[in-house]
């Protein structure tokens, strides 16, 4: 499929089947993440793949929703707070931007493989850092990953018209 079709196909999946994600699919997705660009090629990120039952139960202490529980695997996306590039003109750190690019690579690669994802940012960050300590890193998002359940709710995308978001000068 072409990129526009892929972009249109990706949606926030909120119901997963319990089908296992193949090692090949997971490796493909994470290799796509690894190829994401970042400012000054710093690659200020780390991805914790949560798949064991014990780790999943810990993660649910940070964000516990019924739909979230249905995912067979989660990826905690962390930015390296010490090595992200900082723009010298205004001291703007670009770690969140760089990580967002990598996360969207993850989501689009998963879509290409027929899998679903959802950006989750409404979790308890203090609890997450307590349960999954990673010094020098800050969690930015949790991505549930899995096969989309046949009865997964899905609305057609509502996007602003192109004319409203672009300006030609």
Strand ordering within the main sheet: 1-2-6-5
End-to-end separation in angstroms reads 33 Å
Query: What would CATH call the homologous superfamily?
Result: NADH Oxidase
**Number of contiguous helices:** 7
- Give the tally of structural domains: 1
Global structural class: alpha+beta
Strand content: 15-25%
Protein name: Nitroreductase family protein
Pfam families: Nitroreductase (PF00881)
Keywords: Flavoprotein, FMN, Oxidoreductase
Domain Nitroreductase: 8-60, 63-147
Description:
This protein has 169 residues and is α+β, with helices and mostly antiparallel strands. It has one domain (1-148): 3-Layer(aba) Sandwich (NADH Oxidase). The chain is 36% helix and 19% strand. It contains seven helices and six strands; from the N terminus they run H-H-E-H-H-E-E-E-H-E-H-E-H. A four-stranded antiparallel sheet has the order 1-2-6-5, sandwiched between helices. It has a two-stranded antiparallel sheet with strand order 3-4. A hairpin with a 4-residue loop joins strand 3 and strand 4 (92-93). The model has no long low-confidence stretch (mean pLDDT 97). Keywords: Flavoprotein, FMN, Oxidoreductase. This is Nitroreductase family protein. Belongs to the nitroreductase family. One of its GO terms (molecular function) is oxidoreductase activity.
Which secondary structure elements does this structure contain, and how are they paired or packed?
Blueprint: H1 3-9, H2 23-34, E1 45-50, H3 53-60, H4 66-69, E2 73-80, E3 86-87, E4 92-93, H5 95-112, E5 115-117, H6 125-131, E6 137-147, H7 162-165
Antiparallel strand pairs: 1-2, 2-6, 3-4, 5-6
